[in-house]
Amino acid sequence: MPLTPVDKELLQRCLAKVPGSWNDFVDRFLSLVYHAIHFTAHVRSAKVNPEDVEDIAGEVLLQIVADDYKVLRQFKGHASLGTYLTVIARRICIHELNRRASVRDAIRKGDVKPSSNPDLLIDDSETAQKGMESLEEVEVLLRRIGGKEREVVRLYYLQGWTYEEISTELNVPVNTIGSVLTRARKKLREDRVAVSNTDIPALKKMVQDEAREERKRKK
Fold first, then answer.
1. What are the structural domains, with CATH classification, of the chain?
2. What pTM does this model have?
3. Residues 6+ apart with CB under 8 A from 135
């Protein structure tokens, strides 16, 4: 489904920073963000309480408004705004779930005190490298590569898997995964200018393909 007139108008108002537009945006899409968090936690067998959900939802909203609404400015309108935001919310949720799990492990091992600031406990270099690359840029890259290289990029950028999870799934050494992703980031940087003129498949189809892959893995 393409961008609807209602969402297009709301998006334009937010980017123009029209008073009240952000409140309208939150009213329209907050329930979608909550659903994406619950679904992602369920798929990854992660337990989240209401406070966790609120915290992660807050992080999603912060990411959306960060850098002058960078996430919204990257949206090209090839799919519905809801589909795009669902994928964004899932990626941020996976990041947060992994970070929180690392914090709990560190506390359990006695490496840090429970009272320490969780944001200071984790070396987040891997996630920082991932950043918030445009989902559409990644989709274009996936069309150009194949084999295990494509699977590594897809699982890392679109599914949010860690190096270790990808290594186990594909039977590929962790060091090799790092090399593959380094090459992928270089290609993303090289393609960034050309991407805006590329015929990009709808994100909705991408999400549907991901859902089918998840169902196959669960069987």
1. 1-124 (1.10.1740.10), 133-219 (1.10.10.10)
2. 0.56
3. 74, 84, 87, 88, 157, 158, 203, 206
